[in-house]
Amino acid sequence: MRESRGVAIRYIGRLQSNKYHAILRLFDAVDSADSRLLEHLCAIESRRDLKAGTLLLQVNAGEESQKGGLTVPEIRELAAAGTPWLREISGLMAVVPLEATMKSRAVLYRSVSELFLELVSDLGPSKVTLLSMGTSDDYELAIEHGSNMIRVGTGIFGARPPFQV
Hints:
By secondary structure, this protein is of the alpha/beta class. It has a single domain (10-152), classed as Alpha-Beta Barrel (TIM Barrel). The protein has six helices and six strands. It has a six-stranded parallel β-sheet with strand order 1-2-3-4-5-6. The longest helix has 22 residues, at 102-123. It is globular, with a radius of gyration of 16 Å.
């Protein structure tokens, strides 16, 4: 976190590989990190100019083809293989289908929460500390399932206008 402002500047969104280095230099945290960004980070020899100290691996909990991130089974497989870049993460950020019912969100949140606890056990509780699940409409459910970070943009800024093609 940048002490001068007392505010962490977080990046959330799709990542373009040609912007990786700029994102790592400009933001304090990347909440939507993917395997390619983490592999890029591992390949950097000097990290002196990088600010991003918090990296949340994006979990595509609903296994939606149009969303980025890795699925729970994919992350488990990578953890079992001892993938080196997993040691770079500070936690997980789950995305679930917008149309998911509260009941199906609970199932997805439980699955991601179990994965989070496995990673805490494997990688260490001092390193893997953040579980970002939940939004303005389901934050209570996410907290019940162990979330310690929620995204409340709609609660602050209101609903987004419909996407027009």
